[in-house]
Write a structure and sequence with these properties.
Layout (H helix, E strand, L loop, with lengths): L2 H4 L3 E5 L3 H24 L5 H24 L3 E5 L1 H6 L7 E7 L7 H12 L8 E7 L4 H24 L6 H6 L10 H26 L24 E6 L12 E5 L10 H16 L4 E6 L3 E2 L4 H11 L8 E3 L3 E2 L13 H12 L11 E4 H4 L23 H12 L15 H7 L23 H11 L5 E2 L7 E3 L5 H19 L5 H7 L4 H11 L1 H21 L13 H20 L4 H16 L1 H13 L22 H4 L10 H23 L11 H13 L1 H8 L8 H20 L4
Parallel strand pairs: 3-4, 3-7, 4-6, 9-12, 10-13
Antiparallel strand pairs: 1-2, 5-6, 7-11, 8-13, 9-11
This protein binds uridine-5'-diphosphate-glucose and manganese (II) ion.
Protein name: DH200=94 genomic scaffold, scaffold_462
Membrane topology: Multi-pass membrane protein
GO molecular function: cellulose synthase (UDP-forming) activity
């Protein structure tokens, strides 16, 4: 063994710091003090104190969960250059991209993602790229074919000049990436590439304008009269790299799985399972990478970094999958929609890494094929219980490859014959009846039953005893587009809170994972942080209504100013917010962006999470079904609109805006009535509520400031009048209920 071979491919570093821990415990101690105070005085107060007690108990519980996550943070550093020095044959990797709607997900975005993957620093004969198109759109296929032509020029250019970002739209939009060696040759090549890329964009744009991108003959005949909800499988091999050139164009395959109206297609999870099977009969790589259509590879060495972990761990059990953080490009200044998740990703990510590992986030994740195929760490020899009977479906050829994937060590998997020869087999495994009577979606592959199939699938992996790894690289491994404006952000959050609650009530809920499986107890708690987003809305709403309720009924839910106990809530408020602000400062973000994230978190919790919670409850009661609503993606913010306009909250007539508007109206009314009572001396009665309630009510109004602007705004910046009416009615009923219980 040479010296370099002995060097580890990665290092783990503990990041535990004493001061944050002390602050976290202080907050916890203060929360318990508050609960103690409430319990002591419960009998002197009525219903309102009970509600306050319940909410605060809940918040304390959530805080315990947070402290648990953050307790032993770790970071991992990888050494791709050591991997390259080892001179071993790198293992094959199948790369999956999913798209579902050419309007919400413009093909130029998808195409950039595909191009960035095709041009990573990794031998092309070890890669294969599969695009799943749930819209069966000839436009997407057309764009993919065009992109493959462009990639033939782009890949050599990237490798020759070691281009730092390989998604062309990013590369050409950012002057600072224009590195090269300053030579005239580089300048010339750059100009050519720029021209080619502009041409590609034009072609795609023109094609998108027409109802069909080109004549549907020849290669495109399969798309004639296609109804996206009912059509046969379409699989097209766009390139093959038959010669196995290490610096050629990797194989590219377009897949649109069969859809029939009377077959559940399980949204993204269903698409992922088809990708797993089709790639299983075509290239059967032992590792798979999956990204959403908007998540391009931002670091050319991303695959090498991931391989450092997948190949570098002594025991495979420690690395069931490698998850990269989901980070975004073109974030607006001060994060007005609170959707960049920088702080959450940094602190919760490194915290989770110190436990059983990060949850699967649905994109930017490298999997082991055999883990996806349901194997457990102990099935080392591949005689896992899954490899029996008809668990994997009826295709004999596919079953043969499954057996190989399950039995071979992670480094090799026998590559099936030529890709285009497997099309018939591939069509069979992509048909909508294939999964009947199999374990797909139950024990194998992406698990069905939640609109956050990623969390459910990852849970199933942790359940079987795999640990997982979290990898942050500099530059970021992948970047995606964060939803902008009000409706998109809230719809996405609604889907998440629904899906996460579905996971909690799934047969594979984390409780059972700890009781009957190998999910660690503390990891189960970690899952709860996410899975309880929906129910959190109830407590947040109640708490936001409390100050108003106190003003309406002339009572108090906080200690009075002259009571020493007032120090408890004041300390919680000060210490907690200082702690949060310090996290923003440590991640080089502004205080304004803390505030934006704070208020957006309140808005999201009380609107989107509530709607998500209700829709999950309706589903559990079998009153309705949940659907995966695809998030709209925008390529970049470089439109004519100014930053300020782009950052302004927008509205539509979705019911998701009703609860927020109601809460705002209730608190505004409370402040108004409070002011009147104060001026008129409350008809001679003593005013029981005080500064505490007033400050809380004002704080709620400040958090919903964008809604206040929405009440006055017009067009998309205004709350639609139907929403205003509904909210006003609800607010009126609430005020009446409070007032009628006056003095009780
Ligand atoms: O029927 C469907 C619906 C969606 N998708 C794809 O799924 C991906 C994610 O959809 P998106 O609308 O972008 O959802 P996000 O909320 O941005 O996604 C986050 O949350 C999802 C779970 O809710 C995860 O699956 C994603 O990986 C994660 O990025 C996209 O590539 C879609 O094309 C499909 O392939 N088929
Ligand atoms: Mn997305």
């Amino acid at each position: 063994m040479s010296k370099t071979e002995a060097l580890p491919l990665y290092e783990r570093k503990h990041l535990t710091k004493i001061i944050p821990r002390l602050i976290e415990l202080t907050i916890l101690f203060l929360c318990f003090s508050l609960l103690g105070y409430r319990l002591l005085h419960l009998k002197n107060h009525g219903f309102i104190w009970l509600v306050a007690l319940l909410c605060e108990s809940w918040f304390t519980f959530i805080w315990i969960v947070v402290v648990n996550i953050k307790w032993n943070p770790i970071a991992i550093k990888t050494y791709p250059e050591r991997l390259l020095q080892r001179n071993l044959e790198l293992p094959p990797l199948d790369m999956f991209v999913t798209t579902a709607d050419p309007v919400l997900e413009p093909p130029i975005i998808t195409v950039n993602t595909v191009i960035s993957l095709l041009s990573v620093d990794y031998p092309a004969n070890k890669l294969a790229c599969y695009l799943s198109d749930d819209a069966a759109s000839p436009l997407t296929y057309f764009c993919l074919v065009e992109a493959s032509e462009f990639a033939k020029l782009w890949i050599p250019f990237c490798k020759k000049y070691n281009v730092p970002v390989r998604a062309p739209f990013r590369y050409f939009s950012d002057q600072s990436l224009f590195t090269g060696n300053g030579s005239s040759e580089f300048q010339e090549d750059w100009n050519i590439m720029k021209e080619e890329y502009t041409r590609l964009c034009q072609k795609i744009e023109e094609a998108a304008q027409k109802s069909v991108p080109c004549e549907l003959t020849g290669d495109f005949a399969a798309f004639v009269d296609i109804d996206r909800r009912s059509h046969p499988t379409i699989i097209k091999v766009i390139s093959e790299n038959k010669e196995g050139l290490p610096d050629g164009l990797p194989p590219i395959v377009y897949i649109s799985r069969e859809k029939r109206p009377n077959h559940a297609h399980h949204f993204k999870a269903g698409a992922m399972n088809v990708l797993a099977r089709v790639s299983g009969v075509m290239t059967n790589a032992p590792f798979m990478l999956n990204v959403d259509c908007d998540m391009f590879a931002n670091n050319p060495q991303v695959v090498l970094h991931a391989m450092c972990l997948l190949l570098g761990v002594k025991d495979e059990t420690d690395c069931g999958f490698v998850q990269f953080p989901q980070q975004f490009y073109d974030g607006l200044k001060d994060d007005p929609f609170g959707n960049q998740m920088v702080v959450m990703i940094k602190y919760l990510g490194r915290g989770l890494a110190g436990h059983q590992g990060p949850l699967y986030g649905g994109t930017g994740c490298f999997h082991r094929r055999k883990v996806i195929y349901g194997s457990s760490p102990e099935d080392k020899s591949g005689h896992g219980k899954m490899n029996t009977g008809e668990a994997f479906g009826k295709s004999t050829k596919f079953n043969k490859f499954v057996a190989q994937a399950l039995s071979s060590s992670s480094r090799t998997a026998e590559c099936p014959e030529s890709i285009s020869k497997s099309i018939d087999e591939a069509c069979q495994v992509a048909s909508c009846g294939y999964e009947y009577g199999t374990a797909w979606g139950k024990e194998i592959g992406w698990i069905y039953g939640s609109t956050t199939e990623d969390v459910l699938t990852g849970l199933n992996i942790h359940w079987r005893g795999w640990r997982t790894m979290w990898l942050r690289t500099n530059p970021n491994g992948f970047l995606g587009s964060a939803p902008s404006c009000g409706p998109n952000t809230l719809i996405q959050q609604k889907r998440w809170s629904t899906g996460l609650l579905e996971v909690l009530f799934a047969p594979k809920s984390p409780f059972f994972g700890t009781l009957f499986g190998k999910l660690e107890f503390r990891q189960c708690l970690n899952y709860l942080f996410f899975l309880l987003w929906g129910p959190r809305s109830i407590f947040e709403i109640c708490y936001a209504a409390l100050p108003a309720c106190c003003i309406f009924t002339n009572t108090n839910f906080l200690p009075k100013v002259n009571e020493p106990a007032i120090l408890i809530p004041i300390s919680i408020f000060v210490v907690f917010n200082t702690y949060c602000v310090s996290e923003y400062i440590q991640t080089n973000q502004s205080i304004k962006s803390w505030w934006n994230n704070h208020r957006m978190a309140r808005i999201i919790a009380m609107t989107a999470w509530l709607c998500g919670f209700l829709s999950a409850i309706f589903k559990i009661l079998r009153l309705s079904v949940t659907v995966f609503e695809v998030t709209k993606k925008e390529q970049s913010s470089s439109t004519d609109e100014s930053e300020e306009k782009l950052g302004r909250f927008t509205f539509d007539n979705s019911p998701v805006f009703v609860p927020g508007t109601t809460i705002l109206m209730v608190n505004l009314t409370a402040l108004g009535i409070g002011f009147l009572d104060f001026m008129q001396g409350n008809g001679g009665k003593i005013i029981e509520w005080g500064i505490g309630e007033l400050v809380c009510s004002i704080w709620v109004v400040l958090c919903f400031w964008s809604f206040l602007k929405g009440l006055l705004g017009k067009g998309k910046y205004g709350i639609p009048s139907s929403t205003v009416c509904k909210s006003a009615a609800l607010a009126f009923v609430f005020v009446q209920i409070c007032r009628s219980s006056w003095g009780i």
